[in-house]
Known about the structure:
Elements lengths: L1 H15 L32 E14 L2 E12 L6 E10 L4 E5 L17 E2 L4 E3 L10 E3 L7 E9 L5 E9 L3
Antiparallel strand pairs: 1-2, 2-6, 2-7, 3-4, 3-5, 3-8, 8-9
Amino acid sequence: MKRVLVIVVFAVSVSACGGGTTVSTVAPTPAAPTAAAPAPAPRPSAATLAVSSFDVTFDNYSSGRYWYRPNMVLTETSGKSSATLQSISFSILNGDTYFVTAPVVANGQGCFLTSESKVVGAGQAWNLNSVYYYCLDIDSRNDLTGTPITVAITFVDEDGHQGTVKNTVVVNK
């Protein structure tokens, strides 16, 4: 504060003496723009799915292909909300992915037996018997025995908030 006062007094005294000095003011530097606040994180799903059991077993060898059958039970563990399944996929380390249900299907059911077949009730269990049998084929030109396979399930709770659950097992023969 004292320095500013001294400068102002000096500038005024020089000016008063007729020294021809012009006093100019410097415009304040504008503040840097502040970043917009980040959007709030999406609310997590009120439904919580757990893969209670999961295995993939050899079914048969036909037409030069090894055929495997997944078995899986999902359980909604929160007891607060049902979960509507949107997609179920099985992925192999070689990059192959098999969709049992795709997120978009023409009839709204896809491989589910009924529209109710894709709902896991709050606190209840669900299994692959709710899916058409022919939708469950996992096939390969190579024997997958001992190979890890990952199941990924996406779902929404009763309010439309999305969740995902994954699990990996090794193929049995």
